[in-house]
Specification:
- The protein has 273 residues and is an alpha+beta fold.
- It is built from 7 helices and 14 strands.
- Helix 1 packs across helix 2.
- The mean pLDDT is 96.
């Protein structure tokens, strides 16, 4: 890992790029030894700064849980970051608008959000993980890259808040309302993603490490090894990664999803300046 002075300087540069909505060259291309442990240390420094400024962490996001994304972006494992009261919106209806002028090279990701009623145990099977969840929602995460052309390595993305921009969370549904077999439904449900009425891509729950619950279990295991970070807490939300590939968005576009095999409503979002 890099030394403390280097980590603080990288954190400063990363935060400046985020605050000023501009792009910079990836750290991995210009700083020898910048690796995942260094990147999580940078993320921790900026997390502490955000808390000091009054941002309230409300959960975590997991990125790169869809292996289809790995070869596209040159990563080999999922990553995670905190999400905050300032970056998460609980939608009142299934339609929303989203201003994208504050993001750089934004993309849309349809995801499944899990809300925790208890801390999931490390090493538990998926049925035990499900027992820690009280409600589930469909969401759009808007991700972004402060590195030009979405060219980076995994360590760069971790430093960049794991590419998190904002999270638009749809109607929550109690686990028992999802399907007769919620465990199976979270794996087998299908999602269709359309833009301006034109079908763009379809996916299923199994695209997310086999199930959104498996993504949650992966995060629990990862945090058990990252002793500088708190384990998951009661009342946190976890958004589990994109079911399709991430799709670039532009002002004026209307994106819509439909889900089958699970009792979750689709979402519609229009992007505005």
């Amino acid at each position: 890992m890099l030394d403390v002075l280097q980590l603080r300087e990288i954190a400063r540069l990363m935060r400046a790029a985020q605050d000023e909505t501009r792009q910079i060259e990836p750290f991995t291309s210009r700083i020898e030894g910048f690796d995942l442990p260094s990147a999580y240390a940078v993320a921790a420094l900026n997390h502490e700064a955000l808390i000091a400024e009054g941002h309230l962490p409300v959960g975590r996001k997991i990125g790169f849980t869809n292996p289809k994304m790995w070869s596209i972006y040159g990563v080999r494992e999922p990553i995670w970051a905190y999400v905050y009261d300032t970056t998460v919106t609980r939608l009142a209806t299934d339609r929303a608008t989203c201003s994208i002028g504050r993001f750089v090279e934004p993309k849309i990701e349809p995801e499944i959000v899990l809300h925790l009623r208890s801390a999931p145990p490390a090493g538990a099977d998926l049925r035990a993980v499900l027992e820690s969840v009280d409600w589930v929602a469909h969401a759009f995460e808007i991700v972004q890259s402060h590195f030009p052309g979405w060219r980076f390595q995994a360590a760069d993305t971790v430093a960049d808040s794991s590419l998190h921009g904002t999270l638009l969370v749809g109607e929550p549904r109690a686990v028992e309302r999802l399907a007769p077999d919620p465990l199976g439904a979270l794996e087998s449900f299908r999602l269709a993603l359309a833009c301006n009425g034109e079908m763009r891509e379809s996916g299923r729950g199994a695209n997310v490490l086999g199930s959104p619950l498996a993504a949650l279990a992966h995060l629990v295991a990862l945090l058990s090894r990252q002793l500088d970070f708190q384990p998951l807490q009661v009342d946190e939300i976890v958004t589990t990664g994109t079911i399709t590939t991430a799709r670039s968005v532009r002002i004026g576009a209307l994106w819509h999803t439909e889900l089958t095999g699970i009792a979750l409503p689709g979402l519609t979002v229009e992007f505005v300046p």
